Amino acid sequence: MTDTELPTSSATYTWVDPAVGLAQLPQLSGLEYLTGILEGRIPEPPIAVLMNMDIVAVSEGEVVFETRPTQAHYNPLGTIHGGLACTVLDTVLGCAAHSTLPAGTGYTSIDITVSYVRPIQPSAAPLRATGRVRKSGTRVIFAEAELTDSAGNLLATATSSLLVFAHRPQS
Fold first, then answer.
1. pTM of structure
2. How many C-beta neighbours within 10 Å does residue 56 have?
3. Are 127 and 70 in contact (CB under 8 A)?
4. Which site from 44, 81, 108, 142 is most exposed, i.e. has the minimal number of CB atoms within 10 Å?
5. Is 37 helix (H, G, I), strand (E, B) or coil?
């Protein structure tokens, strides 16, 4: 069989220019900004479109996202690639930290440790990731997260340290 005879799939991704949401960032606390995304007043970042994930709940120090992996997220064994799990976990860790920060403050990951508990089967969707701040701070924030399948089974966990800094948007 040649490549031209193989069945193929494709996807098209469309997102709003991230500058639209980023323009609002300096005036809003992290909680206000994430709530704006949840309520649709601020466009989601392009990575959310690419990874098929949506914010479904936000409060100070905690966020919840859901993702619905597609065939594009399969690894060579036909399960969902661990990179998707890591990306979603990294997102909820960062957003949980962001939800505690005042306007004009940013963050970046110092480290992330992911533990994969079981393979992620395509039938497990939607996947739910919950991130929580364990220790807030003005210099470093410590957060933890978990990823579960639609039946509530634990798939992966993560911890992260995040560096806090004054956010100066690029012009």
1. 0.93
2. 14
3. no
4. 108
5. helix
